[in-house]
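This part of the workshop introduces the protein records we will be handling. An example says more than a description, so a record of this kind follows.
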Amino acid sequence: MNTLPSALRIMCYGDSNTWGYIPVKGTRYPFDKRWTGIFQNIIGIKYEVIEEGLNGRTTDLDDPSHEGMNGLSCLAPCLKSHFPIDYLIIMLGSNDLKNRFYRDAKSIAIGIRRIVQKVRDLCIAEGQSLPKIILINPPTVDEQMCNLAETFKGALKKSKMLPELYANISVKEKCILIDLQKFVKTSKHDGFHLDEKGHATIGKMVSSVILNN
């Protein structure tokens, strides 16, 4: 979509569920099926949606198996390459649930808060206006359905604790919160990624939030 030169810029910072990972297949949904694309098509040419989704991205954890997955470390180059930014949507935390990271829900929330605080610090340092920040807590990760059951052992219980923790952060850091778990479930095929219905729901929800804020 060709947006207006004056379009407000919206960066979507997330993991595979922002990238558009198709459950089981591992390929990518086309733009008009990803929540970011659905979102762009709804809000129209007065807004420009910028996709920054990366498979495996964590909040603030280095992954020894895959380079460049630390969302906190990668934040600065992503933000700086897209300045100015009017809205920043952050949807991270699912990959932190992998049991090899030995992370509890509170630690994941601390990671998210560090990202939000880093955004403010970077904007001040670069002389940029602070974007409105929309924080989206991850959907539940159900290891009982997950084809990576051992990888996400214990994730269901921890993921259910995240909405309250993210809500507390949104109040303290003055972010807009979307509790994804109230509206979206992960795919029945892998228990982790979103199906087309989930992407459509998020696209509509985020559009409504942007148009009303």
Observations:
- DSSP finds six helices and five strands in the chain.
- Helices lie at 16-19, 35-43, 71-82, 105-126, 155-172, 196-211.
